[in-house]
Each structure stands twice: as C-alpha cells, then as structure tokens.
Amino acid sequence: MDDRSIAALLTISENRSRILAVIVSMVGDFEAAEDLFQEAVLEILKSEQRYDPTRSFVPWACGVARNVVLEHWRRQAKMPSSGLSELIAELAMIVAEGEEDVWRRERVALRGCVQRLPDRMQKLLLLRYGHNLKGQALAESAAVRVGSLRTTLARLRSKLRECIESKVAHAIPEATA
Fold first, then answer.
1. DSSP result, 17-74
2. Lowest-pLDDT range, 7-11, 29-33, 61-65, 166-170?
3. CA-CA distance, 42 to 154, in Å (whole number)?
4. Which of 74, 59, 62, 79 lies closest to 24 in space, CA to CA?
5. pTM of the model
6. Angle of helix 16-27 relative to helix 57-76, nearest 10 degrees?
7. How far is CA 85 from CA 25, 76, 88, 127, in A?
8. Selection from 51-55, 106-110, 137-141 with the highest mean pLDDT
9. pLDDT tens for each residue of 64-84
10. Which of 5, 15, 33, 66 could form a disulfide with 23 if both were Cys (CB 3.0 to 4.6 A apart)?
11. Dist. CA 46–CA 93, nearest whole Å
C-alpha cells in the first residue's frame, strides 16, 4: 500500500460515520450497511486515482458508497419499491457535503440528548439501531407493545431531532462570541 492509499484509508476512517450514514439511509439495515461499507471502502481505494484532491473527499466517497449500494440492489434484483429510499439517500448526501463543524456539533448534541432520555428509551434506541432488532423481537426485548412500536420510535426520533436542533442553535452563538 502506498502513501496515497494509506492517506485515503485514514481519511475514510475519519469520515466513517458520514459515509456509513449514506449507506444506512439507503438500505435501512445496519448489518447490511456495515457489509456494504466494507465494499465501499474497497471501491474507494480502487478508484482513488479518479478522486480530485482539490474537491472535498467526503461527498466523493459518499457518491462511491451510493454507487456500491445501487450495484448491490442490482445484484439482488431488488430495488426499493418507492423513490423514498433514493430521496433519503440524496438527503444523506447533502448532509455528507455539509460542514464538518456542524456534523461534529450534531453528533455531540445527539450524545447529550440520548443521555438525557429515560433508560427505557435509551435501551429501545440501542436495541433498534445498535443491534438492528425489529418487530416482535424489538418489542419483546424493549418491553414495548408491538402495536405502539412504530409510533414510539417516531416520537423518539422527533424528540431527539428537536433536542439536537435546540442544542446546536444554542451552541452557535457561543462559538461566534
């Protein structure tokens, strides 16, 4: 591996969460996303000669990752049934192109917001997004009724988004002061 490949690997590692976010947004499954992330890393390293160092690395790498997911869908012969996954992927790409400081502030805010949640809700988040449990298995493990699971998760995500936006909005004046 040459110096350029090592530098690319380090840059990929530093931006893992941003690249993985694009993949997760497209496939909706953390385990599958992890496998596809590994494929994306290999593809990024194979195609690094096509990368223009005068441009931002993350959007380029996320574009490569997006193409890996599209190829995965072609191999599986199962594209998403609606354009929703593609729309979410485009939104994730926009976020990936965003400012690194905003990304960091949002991650720090998310961590604080999750820590403020009741233990039961923290467990639900961990089981759903950390362990990729779904449906009946998630409901049983988190002690939540299956019928209310979708609503509970939607409210939880909404509450987290509001908390993150509030924390980030309050952090911006402090940073400029």
1. HHHHHHHHHHH--HHHHHHHHHHHHHHHHHTGGG--TTS-HHHHHHHHHHHHHHHHHH
2. 7-11
3. 34
4. 62
5. 0.53
6. 30
7. 7, 16, 5, 22
8. 137-141
9. 998 899 888 888 876 654 454
10. 33
11. 21
The token pair at 124 is 């639900």
The residue type of 59 is: P
Structure tokens of 88? 């979410």
Under a CB-based contact definition with an 8 Å cutoff, are residues 146 and 135 in contact?
yes
Q: For the chain, what's the residue count? A: 177
Please name which of 71, 79, 64, 85 lies closest in space to residue 11, comparing C-alpha atoms.
Answer: 64
- Assigned token pair, 162: 């509001």
- Could you tell me the sign of the dihedral formed by the alpha carbons of 121, 126, 127, 132, in that order? positive
Chain position carrying tokens 């980030």: 168
CA distances from 81 to 34, 96, 111, 128, 136 (A): 22, 25, 33, 23, 24
Report residue 129 as tokens.
């997004």
The tally of CA atoms less than 13 A away on the side-chain side of residue 64 is: 22
